């Protein structure tokens, strides 16, 4: 019987330092992730923490900034690995697959920041590697995406005002549609933790 693992992706202070953080899709991300972590630990699942770093860039993802750390309220327990990646997905630039293989993991649950980028790509790669992947949609968060023709110098106000900007709701819907039934099973925190079943019985 294979083991399950929860991979928490990029729920880090770097994102909170960006002005667009206030326009994220899920202001409750830390609490939702914490619920998943608590349930995983209770089941005896492996919890793996992943951070994104861009060394030498001088930005908020540069480790020298001090922001490449988990957002306050999330703390790894003893024995829970913390990996640092430099690609979007959590596999390519880390030893995540080795960690999961050594732990006998076959079922993979993913959550974190950003819905359509780092979390989705991790789900896709995990599926390609043969893991049974669960994508916990309300334990992810994302931000509006500017149109490709918008200049890189565009201000946040201009991005938000542009009718071509892809909204959080559109991003989430497209991501769920692309993953469901192919690369991953899309679930909510309540479904994964059993809260929805408990509520139905009460």
Task: Please render the helix and strand layout as text.
Elements: E1 3-9, H1 13-16, H2 29-43, E2 46-52, E3 82-85, H3 96-102, E4 105-113, H4 115-128, E5 132-141, H5 156-161, H6 168-179, E6 185-187, H7 189-193, H8 195-201
Parallel strand pairs: 1-2, 1-4, 2-3, 4-5, 5-6
Helix pairs in contact: 4-6
Structure description:
With 202 residues, the protein is an alpha/beta fold. Helices cover 35% and strands 20% of the residues. The chain has eight helices and six strands, in the order βααββαβαβααβαα. It has a six-stranded parallel sheet, sandwiched between helices. Helix 4 packs parallel to helix 6. The relative contact order is 0.18.
Number of continuous helical runs:
8
* Lateral strand order in the biggest sheet: 3-2-1-4-5-6
Structural class: alpha/beta
Shape: globular
The string of secondary-structure elements, in order, is EHHEEHEHEHHEHH
Largest β-sheet summary? 6 strands, parallel
Label this structure with key terms.
6-stranded parallel β-sheet, 202 residues, globular, alpha/beta, 20% strand
């Amino acid at each position: 019987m294979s083991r399950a693992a929860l991979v928490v992706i990029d729920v880090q202070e770097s994102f909170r330092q960006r002005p667009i953080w206030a326009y994220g899709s899920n202001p409750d991300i830390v609490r939702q992730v914490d619920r998943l972590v608590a349930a995983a630990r209770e089941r005896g699942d492996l919890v793996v923490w992943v951070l994104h770093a861009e060394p030498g860039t001088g930005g908020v993802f540069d480790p020298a900034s001090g922001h490449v750390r988990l957002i306050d309220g999330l703390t790894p327990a003893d024995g829970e690995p913390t990996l640092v990646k430099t690609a979007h997905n959590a596999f390519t630039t880390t030893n995540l697959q080795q960690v999961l293989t050594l732990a006998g993991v076959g079922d993979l649950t993913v959550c974190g920041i950003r819905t359509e980028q780092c979390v989705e790509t991790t789900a896709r790669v995990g599926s390609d590697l043969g893991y049974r992947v669960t994508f916990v949609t309300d334990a992810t968060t994302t931000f509006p995406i500017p149109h490709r023709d918008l200049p890189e110098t565009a201000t946040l106000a201009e991005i938000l005002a542009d009718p071509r900007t892809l909204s959080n709701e559109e991003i989430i819907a497209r991501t769920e549609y692309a993953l469901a039934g192919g690369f991953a099973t899309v679930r909510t925190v309540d479904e994964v933790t059993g809260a929805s079943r408990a509520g139905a019985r009460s």
